[in-house]
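Q: what does this look like with manganese (III) ion bound?
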Amino acid sequence: MHQLPKLPYDYRSLEPVIDAKTMEIHHTKHHGGYVDKLNAALEGHHDLLTMSVENLLANLDQVPAEIQLAVRNNGGGHANHSLFWTSLQGNGPQEPSEKLMSAFKQFFGGFDNFKNEFTQHALNRFGSGWAWLVANPDNQLLVLSTPNQDSPIMDGLKPILGLDVWEHAYYLQYQNRRPEYVENWWQIVNWAEVEKRLE
Ligand code: MN3
């Protein structure tokens, strides 16, 4: 059985960037819903129940056709949100380390360029989805976006940092103002955690 992970901080910790009510609903109802529906889809599929969600997403072609879409959507939702929560922190804006800065320089021409490119993916994603910083199998960094709850893992990519741009992630506080949510979100990125994922 897949389990809803506990958050490494309080629902209020990310205020004023993300309000406590949004965090609570997002974690318990949305992420919780993906976990419940993933477990329901996998019921009776004993061989699949022992696989990690990342492993399921990387091997969707081995999942029976009748539950493939449910595993893709809800497994993706579970994996994406698990990564999202641990990418955030509420101790005030942090700076990426020198090591991270040099990676941004190498692959994007600098931190500001990376930020701009990532932001464009977050703003240009029509409807619901995610913006991502990912590593490809050659350990090159790139930014992209995915629709719905699709995970970069499905395409053999390793997610390093993800931003949820579904309206449920920001609507209570920002309504239709996605650009303001995205801009403020940079203040709560946990760069130390991002760096760990690069290793
Ligand atoms: Mn979400």
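The radius of gyration is 17 Å. The chain has two domains: 20-86, 98-198.
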